Amino acid sequence: MTNHITTKWLGEMAFESNNPSGHTVRIDAGPDDGGSGAGLRPKALMLSALAGCSGLDVASLIKKMKLEVEDFKIDTIANLTEEHPKYYDSVVVEYHFTGSNLNEDKLKKAVDLSVEKYCGVMEMFRRFAKLEIKTIFHHR
């Protein structure tokens, strides 16, 4: 299976990229790099893709396992190399679960399944970055 994405230049430093979902995303450089900052930065978008991919896995498992979770967020903290081409050489992925009745073991299992088995974007990142996974519980 292949994905075909078209990314069209809008002028200046802005681009619009389509998606099989039918939605588009605007990509732009910041003012320091000649853009107007009216879009998402490409490298940061990779972190959103990583969190989004794994988040979908975990959300699906929360539903399947019938777990009670009031709030769920993923923080990705990435280190960018200093030399060009700059890339992420290490990424910390923090899964934050909030609730009054959290099943820590099952939530940890859901995260592990995503990280080790299901998330393709995680696998891609693994090819170039050191990953550190943290699962954090906030009990109400």
TrEMBL record:
Domain of life: Bacteria
Listed transmembrane segments: none
Protein name (Swiss-Prot/TrEMBL): OsmC family protein
